């Protein structure tokens, strides 16, 4: 059996943290792109698009991320197109993230006071001019704190990818533990590393929240 | 010359009939104050005049153009009708100058330098030329409402609608807004204002319209109307508010 020093453990965990970060980024960028699309579908005047989007959001918000991950990973295999844990995790996290971001952003758009629509309308602005110059800039500012806050959930959500065998931080911790039987040290380090990723984001979200408040937008 | 002509306008929200046949005509340069109890349909009437609400039946004509089903785009409407709201509704993410310039720039596509010049003029008119670069949140309520008036003026509307524009203000700030409106009236701007400021209606309006239960119950010159109300409803209303 190979001996692992503390530094070996830490080094391996840090290397695995890269994949947690990469997976988080994929989930976030993919989720934001799909989420933006969904937000506009939700806002469209087409009833069917609205319903379809609501259903999508409800579905992904109303089922555990783990089940989504299983369905995509094992579902693809069952249908004769096995996909890598990488791809399955990226797809599942993107879909999951998009549903939540869509909901957050729709809320922000609706949080812009109705009077803003009226004011723009009596000044002669059409729907797109109002969106572009009046509503979106305000909604964007409102959306930054909850969006940054949600990114913390995405990072923690990537831990589930370990269950389908994707080697990120949590999986690396499990594997190291199987080799060293030092669960306390290892999982304390794993937790610490997650914290190091998430805490600055939480602080940043809180800082943005305060800045918004000071700007008189809330 | 008649600028605003309202003929037998009806409006209902579900089963609630809010306007039950309004007839009103407002001449160019006239100042009309609309008074009446809460719920009598004053705001709804104003909102029909700029199509924030669609009236169910009847005719509204502004500057010889009929306002119904898509006959007037928001852009065209804004050339005729300006509006100031009780809650100011300034754009909080834009400076005072940007608030005033936005619509002339994006709706009219006017030259930036020209628009900024007009913005400074209208802000001067409301006594806020030094606040060009301030944000709405940095201003008092009275100042914000004056910016809202300037913003409406920058579109050079033919008639301005004001819906209780001083009701959200602290008492000591009401005067500065009313003075701006008074100056506009003196310059010949056509104004239709819903107001609870009876002394303002009496001093500044050419005509006072008393609305009651969705109808124009009584109207006339303020001196007449206030000193010699004809209907018991108006008598009661006047004794309640004065
Ligand atoms: N969008 C709406 N949907 C349903 N009912 C409405 C709507 N807008 C107004 N109403 C109702 O119509 C009636 C008249 O409202 P309106 O706002 O015109 O009254 P008002 O004379 O302006 O009163 P106030 O002095 O309180 O502003 C009220 O009973 C109100 O509840
Ligand atoms: Mg009202």
Show the helix and strand layout:
The complex is a heterodimer of chains A (218) and B (242).
Chain A: H1 6-43, H2 47-61, H3 65-78, H4 85-111, H5 114-122, H6 127-157, H7 169-180, H8 183-214
Chain B: E1 2-13, E2 16-27, E3 31-36, H1 42-49, E4 57-62, E5 65-66, H2 74-80, E6 81-84, H3 96-106, H4 112-125, H5 141-153, E7 159-163, H6 171-186, E8 190-194, H7 198-204, E9 207-212, E10 215-220, H8 222-227, H9 232-241
Parallel strand pairs in B: 3-8, 3-9, 6-7, 7-8
Antiparallel strand pairs in B: 1-2, 1-4, 4-5, 9-10
The complex binds adenosine-5'-triphosphate and magnesium ion.
Task: Write structural notes for this entry.
Chain B: One of its GO terms (cellular component) is plasma membrane. Chain B: This is Glutamine transport ATP-binding protein GlnQ. Chain B: It is found in: Cell inner membrane. Chain B: Its main location: membrane. The complex is a heterodimer of chains A (218) and B (242). With 218 residues, chain A is an all-alpha fold. Chain A has one domain: MetI-like (MetI-like fold). Chain A is built from eight helices and no strands. In chain A, α3 packs across α4. Chain A is flat. The termini of chain A are far apart. By secondary structure, chain B is of the alpha/beta class. Chain B has a single domain, classed as Rossmann fold. Chain B is built from nine helices and ten strands. In chain B, the strands form two sheets. A six-stranded mixed sheet of chain B has the order 6-7-8-3-9-10, sandwiched between helices. Chain B has a four-stranded antiparallel sheet with strand order 2-1-4-5, with helices on one face. In chain B, a hairpin with a 2-residue loop joins β1 and β2. In chain B, α5 runs parallel beside α6. The mean pLDDT of chain B is 94. The chains are: A mainly alpha (218), B alpha/beta (242). At the A-B interface, α5 and α6 of A face α2, β6, α3 and α5 of B. Adenosine-5'-triphosphate binds next to β2 and α1 of chain B.
